[in-house]
Amino acid sequence: MELNDVEEEEFGFSRNYFLAKELGGSGKKSARKLSDINLVDEQELREAYANIEPKHEKEINDLVRSYKNSYSEWVGVLRCGFGLLMYGFGSKKALMEDFASTALTDYSVLVINGYLQSINLKQVAATLAELLWDQLKIQRKSTLANHPKNQQPFDTRSMDDLISFLDGPHLEDDECFVCIVVNNIDGPGLRDSETQQYLARLAACSHIRMVASIDHVNAPLLWDKKMVHTQFNWYWYHVPTYAPYKIEGMFFPLILTHTGSAQSVKTASIVLQSLTPNAQNVFKVLADHQLAHSDEEGKWMPFNNLYTICRERFLVSSQITLNAHLTEFKDHELVKTRRNSDGEDCLYIPLTSEALQKLVQEIS
Amino acid sequence: MAPAVDPSSSPPLPTAESNLQPFYILHKASPSKSAAKTRRRIDLSPKASDGSTEICDDGNLRLETFKSLWSNTESIIKDVLKNLNANVFDEIDKWVHVSFDAIRACRSSDFSTSTRPYPIMNNASIAAVGASRQIFTALLFTKNMEFVDDILTFADLGVHLRSHGCCVANLTSLDFSAKNGVGGCLKTLLRQLLMVSIDAPDMSILASWYTEQDEKPLVIIIEDVERCCGSVLNDFIIMLREWVIKVPIILILGVATTVDALKNILSSNTYLDLSVCEFNLGTPAERMDAVLEAVLLKNCETFSVGKRVSTFLRNYFIRHDGTLTLFVRALKIAMVQHIHAEPLSFTLRKLVDEEGAKGFESDSILSRETVRKRVLDLPSLQRCCQPSADYADMLSGLSELKRHCKLWSSTVMCLYEVGKYHKITLLDLYCETLEPEPRNSSASDYTRLAKDNTISSHNHHLVGCSQSEGYVVWAFQKVRDLPPVELCKLLNRWEMLTRGTTEIHEKVKELQSLTTCEENRPKREPTESSRRPTARNRINEKTDKPTVNEKVATFLQCIVRQYIQPIESIPFNEIVFFNNVDKLQTALVGDPRRRIQTDLLESNKFLKCSCCSKNGGAPVPSMHNTSMMYSLAQEHGDLINLSEWFHSFKAIVSQPTLPAKKRPRMSPSPRKRKESNEPQNKSDATIQAEFCRAVMELQITGLLRMPSKRRPDYVQRVAFGL
Question: What is the predicted ipTM?
Answer without folding.
Answer: 0.80
